[in-house]
């Protein structure tokens, strides 16, 4: 058995844990047994992870973009422990509870006005599944079951479950090996790269052409607003999002915005759609919603969508997870949202953006670098060739930073509470990696 004392482990205990882990435990997108080393984390506090040997690393990833307040935050700890003394979980079928109601009220309050109905899901992937199901069931309820496809763009990533995989990039995405068993949707080319670039009229025309050509079989449009996350860490101009809203309205399609990675301030606006002042019909939230404490997500929709679904043959939305609206997760999610909005989060994100922009500017001229881009609390160095992940992480750790690159992308999405010095450390690590390419 593994034992911990004072947040550290003996070398023998750490070695035994790592050996068992390697032979028996799957990690994300990893072989079995593992071919690359993993680092044993024994505690986390503030923005720092503590490894078994006592090494501290600044977490430049916010635990895959979720821990925006850092770790071991007293207000979030109190929310969990306070709710734990009342009930950790209760089924949501036929029952409700204060944490769920309070969180739903908060989400309706802070999301765009027409989004008034809330479905609580287990994870971001499930939230997207629910959004897709909403769109399909809406049209089935309207007597148009042939409207069962979605329009999306290449370069996107929406999750690992089957409905989600079908709307991820079908060629360069992580799920292309499943293409022969996935639903067939309609893909436009990826949006032209660059948040501040002038919109490409030819691209806008292609979006319009595809929507018109398939309008009778399309249920909706699904995209990540302004920032495409795990599909390529690409930033695109808000005008394209505005165009998609117009196209959806022209053909009566539902616009689904996947805000799981972009929501709660990550891009410099509270929601990615705020960059274009666009309002979706369905919105998916997750990741930062609970501050990285517990898995939970939400799918919000308008009254029109909700009433359309419930007026159909089923009379209900056909989904209901076992841990739906888990009270522990709902309590800490409300506390996380309150904590975010009680601080000047916008200034925090702007500071991260300013430091990363300044510190990484010169990296664009390095021979192994294809592009450098920064938006909000997101910094990306794109290499010309796929990087060796263990080697890159070794450089980052030598600078006291934890990063998790993939493909050609070395990037950071740090906690908003990082000090200026901590952001500089992260930028130094990214620059050192860029120099090594």
TrEMBL record:
Q: Where in the cell is it found?
A: Cytoplasm
A Pfam family recorded for this sequence? Aminotran_3
Superkingdom per UniProt: Bacteria
UniProt cofactor(s): pyridoxal 5'-phosphate
Catalyzed reactions per annotation? (8S)-8-amino-7-oxononanoate + S-adenosyl-L-methionine = S-adenosyl-4-methylsulfanyl-2-oxobutanoate + (7R,8S)-7,8-diammoniononanoate
Q: Which CDD domains match?
A: OAT_like (cd00610)
Q: Which residues bind substrate?
A: 64, 157, 287, 320, 404
User: Where is it chiefly localized?
Assistant: cytoplasm
Instruction: Tell me the SUPFAM superfamilies matching this sequence.
Output: PLP-dependent transferases
Which parts of the sequence are marked as the site Participates in the substrate recognition with KAPA and in a stacking interaction with the adenine ring of SAM?
A: 29
- Similarity comment: Belongs to the class-III pyridoxal-phosphate-dependent aminotransferase family. BioA subfamily.
Listed under subunit, the entry gives: Homodimer.
Protein name as catalogued = Adenosylmethionine-8-amino-7-oxononanoate aminotransferase
């Amino acid at each position: 058995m593994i034992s911990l004392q004072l947040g550290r482990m003996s070398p023998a205990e750490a070695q035994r844990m790592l050996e068992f882990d390697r032979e028996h435990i799957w990690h994300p997108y990893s072989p079995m047994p593992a071919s690359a080393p993993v680092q044993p984390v024994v505690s986390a506090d503030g923005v720092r992870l503590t490894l078994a040997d006592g090494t501290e690393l600044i977490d430049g990833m916010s635990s895959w973009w979720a821990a925006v307040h850092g770790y071991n935050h007293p207000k979030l700890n109190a929310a969990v422990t306070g709710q734990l003394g009342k009930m950790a979980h209760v089924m949501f079928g036929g029952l409700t509870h204060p944490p769920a109601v309070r969180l739903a009220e908060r989400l309706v309050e802070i999301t765009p006005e027409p989004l008034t109905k809330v479905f609580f899901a287990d994870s971001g992937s499930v939230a997207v599944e629910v959004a897709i199901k909403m769109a399909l069931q809406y049209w089935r309820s309207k007597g148009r079951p042939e409207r069962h496809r979605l329009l999306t763009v290449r370069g996107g990533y929406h999750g690992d479950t089957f409905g989600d995989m079908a709307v991820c990039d079908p060629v360069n995405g992580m799920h292309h090996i499943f293409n022969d068993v996935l639903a067939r949707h309609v893909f436009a080319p990826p949006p032209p790269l660059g948040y501040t670039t002038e919109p490409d009229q030819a691209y806008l025309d292609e979006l319009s052409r595809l929507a018109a050509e398939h309008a009778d079989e399309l249920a909706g449009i699904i995209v990540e607003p302004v920032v495409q996350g795990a599909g390529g860490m690409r930033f695109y101009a808000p005008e394209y999002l505005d165009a998609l809203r117009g196209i959806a309205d022209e053909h009566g399609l539902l616009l689904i915005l996947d805000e799981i990675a972009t929501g709660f301030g990550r891009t410099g606006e509270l929601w990615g759609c705020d960059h274009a002042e666009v309002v979706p019909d369905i919105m998916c939230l997750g990741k930062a919603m609970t501050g990285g404490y517990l898995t939970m997500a939400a799918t919000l929709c308008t009254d029109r969508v909700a009433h359309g679904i419930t007026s159909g043959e089923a009379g209900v939305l056909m989904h209901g997870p076992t841990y739906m609206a888990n009270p522990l997760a709902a309590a800490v999610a409300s506390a996380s949202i309150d904590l975010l909005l009680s601080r000047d989060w916008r200034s925090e994100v702007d500071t991260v953006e300013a430091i990363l922009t300044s510190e990484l500017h010169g990296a664009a001229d390095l021979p192994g670098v294809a592009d450098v881009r920064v938006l909000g609390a997101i910094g990306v160095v794109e290499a010309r060739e796929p990087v060796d992940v263990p080697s890159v992480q070794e450089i980052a750790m030598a600078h006291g930073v934890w990063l998790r690159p993939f493909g050609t992308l070395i990037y950071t999405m740090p906690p908003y509470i990082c000090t200026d010095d901590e952001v500089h450390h992260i930028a130094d690590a990214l620059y050192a990696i860029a120099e090594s390419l």
